[in-house]
What we know:
Layout: H1 7-51, H2 60-67, H3 72-82, H4 88-100, H5 114-149, H6 154-168, H7 171-185, H8 204-241, H9 244-251, H10 256-285, H11 287-293, H12 299-308, H13 312-340, H14 342-346
Amino acid sequence: xxxxxxxxxxxxxxxxxxxxxxxxxxxxxxxxxxxxxxxxxxxxxxxxxxxxxxxxxxxxxxxxxxxxxxxxxxxxxxxxxxxxxxxxxxxxxxxxxxxxxxxxxxxxxxxxxxxxxxxxxxxxxxxxxxxxxxxxxxxxxxxxxxxxxxxxxxxxxxxxxxxxxxxxxxxxxxxxxxxxxxxxxxxxxxxxxxxxxxxxxxxxxxxxxxxxxxxxxxxxxxxxxxxxxxxxxxxxxxxxxxxxxxxxxxxxxxxxxxxxxxxxxxxxxxxxxxxxxxxxxxxxxxxxxxxxxxxxxxxxxxxxxxxxxxxxxxxxxxxxxxxxxxxxxxxxxxxxxxxxxxxxxxx
Length: 347
């Protein structure tokens, strides 16, 4: 039996197409706008990555020459090898060509391709920041929704007060305090590095040793970050508490705990989703201080060493990588927020 299309069915069909088509076109337009903004930001990062580090004091060739005796002819040859004898405009053109061909240059200090160094140090940074991000997100969201649901209680005051106090503490100062107390005085945890000498990789002892080295830097990063998630979640949930749909849910006889978990918290999560993705990128880029204090072999410590050089290719490479991670995370946050919030889709 074949289906027949009546005038009513045809009208409904046309109406559905009219509703779906703008949605697709609006998403493409929204995606194109956000992607265009991300690309513009990336171009600005590439430009800034060249000119910003040219104003840093210090001469990388002179620094290398201080480490071992070199004649003026050898110094001039070293400048020629690094391309530092060329005009700035020519150096900039070479930089652009290298960036868009995936060649980040060679480190002055390590004498190794920058892309290879970044690949080598990226893993420890992702391990440290990824662990810190997961703990900070879970802790911040859990404390935030609990504090909001018990607004004005002792739990609320302690949670918000503690988080705001830790949030205001400088990261390097907190890291040094933890290092001196728990690494130096009490000697509960290692004071630096990622693994102790002599530990065989791939063994259970290796995993435990890496975990012990991670405790202090992870605690430092979590302490100064989780307050952001707590405060946003708390404010969002306090706004949701006055909504009519929660009153209706209670009137149906649902327990207060179910009202919070099934209705209030999911809606209050919308603003937090954007914050999570935006701060994941910032957390990776902000690992410089923590990795330097705890001698963690990641991109943060690598960047600090490049600044003290100054190692221009390495600085430019890490800067572009950090900035790209932040830009990509912000783009993902915008796209996810649009999918979660129908108000943004209709805008």
